[in-house]
Amino acid sequence: MTYRDSNGSVPGAGPRPGGGLDLQQLRTFLAVHRSGSFTAAAQLLRLSQPTVTTQIRSLERRLGHTLFDRLPRGVAPTGEANDLAARIAAPLDALEVVAGTGGADASAPPLPLRLAGPAEALHALVLPALAPMVEEGVRLRVRTGPADGLLDELRSGRHDLVLSTVRPRGRTLLAEPLVDEEFVLVASPSWSRRIHRDRLTRQGASALCAIPLVAYDDDLPLLRRYWRHVFGVRLTCAPAITVPDLRGVMTAVVNGAGVTVLPRYLCQDALDDGRLVTLLEPEEPPINTAYLVRRPGPAGHPHLEGVWKQLVAAASRC
Fold first, then answer.
1. Domain total for the chain?
2. Is residue 75 in some structural domain?
3. Is 256 helix (H, G, I), strand (E, B) or coil?
């Protein structure tokens, strides 16, 4: 957010007054810098947005320069803001860790950890890995949804951890690659016999022109990606069935609805027991990376680090 008067200077700015900087203002500044939004920072700090605005204005007057420029969505830090964040982040984070241990009732159980991600990956990968931690006292509140929306909610403090198939941009979130999803072209055994895999190998996508396609969206994102990566052509067909959950897509295909593309982790059991058949085994199948994403700074939940490590360890065994 910009606070310049008509000649481009910061209103009220002058020589920097003596004395140290206000820790609360610095804490608020760091929250805005990391979240990219005054609104998100207010939610994270449990302050009103006018309070956040007032504190940032006061800090700018004290420093004598602007810290944030307004964008259509959120704010962008100035060069001076980036320099300030680099200097204060580590000391403030260390102080938050110390202060956080004394501010709560040690006898009270921690609040549930708020975890979010795509329903299919949570079902197949995340919840099986975290279920044993419930006996250790971990409590979870799980939400599903599209990646972009969940990442925005993570920035604003509504989640503690997000599994995302989209890598977040910028420095407002920390992302670690967790697992590579391999996509496979599958059908039921009956459709596999009718398609003839040797014909599919010779003719490519043209061998599938008359086969019903099943997808989780009318845009066929996974199928389009597979067609482009493996066959080198653009998919123009309309789906026969759409189900907004890949588990539903798999159920339809297992029962003979047609052909689809699924992450291997989701359909491996069906492939192993013969309910599904892989139609092609390309040398370089299309893949997509899933990331574990959190806000920077000290962990806001006592079980966050443990859950993070548990998921990384489980992914290494996949």
1. 3
2. yes
3. coil
